[in-house]
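Handout, section B. The chain below has 179 residues.
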Amino acid sequence: MYNYYLVPLYILFVLFLPLESQTATLAEFSFSDPNQAKAFRELSEQFRCLVCQNESIAASQAGLARDLRRQIYEMMQAGKTKRQIIEFLVARYGDFVLYNPPLKPATYFLWYGPFLLVIIAVFLGIQILRTQQGARHGELSSEEQAQLAAILNDPYSLDSKSNSDSKLSLNAKSRNIPS
């Protein structure tokens, strides 16, 4: 017999299972100095998981993130400074590993690209609105008004020669007579 009242418990278990594993990611490392533990936490939050790309290595469960945490831990235990650890990881993986990449020519697009895209979108939006307003409010010349009136009164009255030809060809087509 299937117990339907257990389904919400199963769903809650599955939803909260990842939270338990995320809290354990940094707890597996032990430090004798609380300042060193704090520095480890800060460093782990500072680096992007290269597999997940949207979370820090502190929160990621990817294998590479675990390896990077272990590597940071070992370098801290060896007495390396924060600056040395950051330089090592940037040299190995590039500026992309940092959540806040430095401002330099190679990263200008990362820093200024979103602003540039917004400016382009606003410019294009203004251009589109101007062309739509111009098309809506454009007035017809007197010649165009005369042609429009002629078309509305008699659709075959564009000009007399083509008018008679089109009527003849329409009559011929409707009666299956070769023209």
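Note. The longest helix spans residues 108-137. Compare this with the example in section A.
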